[in-house]
Structures are given as structure tokens and as C-alpha cells.
Amino acid sequence: MASHESSLMRVHTFGVGTEFDEYLVKETAKAGRGSYSLAKNVDCLNKQVILALKRAQSPSLGACTFQWNNGPKQELNEMFRDESFTQFAPQMMSIEEFKRIKVTFYSSMNPITKQPINLEFGREDFIETDMPLFQM
Q: How much is the pLDDT for 12?
């Protein structure tokens, strides 16, 4: 298969029940630039199949990384349109450390512009919530 064709194809995987290889389900989806779903029973599967079909119809971001304050880069799964993700800081930080925070998000290719995405966020990009947490 030509590399151009393989970049357009995605593999979404499902693990159903309790007797499946979770590592295989996750890594196959990652290699196929798709998503994975883990369902304890068939009743949970319908909603997850519909979500996988929705994801298959829209562009996604691949090879994404997230980094806190120039620390180690954390690989993220494929990022899909209109879906949020949660990322926790690797450690608790003081208010002074938080004031100097720098978060970097990178993706190898924007599916629209075909260019890499490299975003940097600072303290001013966070929103305080009612809990002692912040969100961007």
C-alpha cells in the first residue's frame, strides 16, 4: 500500500468483555491512527461504535505531544475534532511555579493546512474553577 493511501486510513479497535488483550487493542488503534474502546459488555458497545464512526468521518491530529514546563514530552493518542482531553501536571506546584507555567502542545500535521501545530500556553490561558484546579 502506498504511504499516501495508508495516511488516509484509520483503524478503530474494540475490546469487549473482560478477556481481551488491552495492550493489543490500544496499540493497534495507536498504530492505525484510530481510537480504541473498551466495553465490559455488548450493551455498552453501541454508543462506542457510533463514536468511532463519527471519528472516522472527520480529520484528526496525529503524533501529538503535551509538555509541562520543558519537562518530558507526553505522547497523546490521536486527537479528534470537538473532543476534549484531560492532562494532569506531573506534580503539585506552588502558586509561584504556576504563575510561571508553560505548556506546549505539538502535532506533526494540521489536517487542513498540512503544516505542524506548535502551541504554547502560559498562566493567562488558564481559567480558575470552583475547585483547586484550572482548565484551559
A: 93
Q: Once rounded to an integer, what is the mean pLDDT over residues 96-102? A: 85
SS3 80: strand
Q: What are phi and psi of 72, to 5 degrees?
A: -65, 145
User: Does residue 66 sit in the same domain as residue 129?
Assistant: yes
pTM: 0.69
Q: What is the pLDDT of residue 133?
A: 58
Residues spanned by the domain of 122: 61-135
Residue 26 backbone class (left: φ over 0; alpha: ψ -120 to 50; beta: rest): alpha
Q: Is a pLDDT exceeding 70 seen at residue 10? A: yes
Q: Are 79 and 107 in contact (CB under 8 A)?
A: yes
**Residues composing the chain:** 136
Rounded distance, CA 64 to CA 73, Å? 10
Phi and psi at 85, nearest 5°, equal: -140, 155
Tally of structural domains, the chain:
2
Residues 120 and 82 in one domain: yes
Q: Are residues 76 and 42 in the same domain?
A: no
73 shares a domain with 41: no
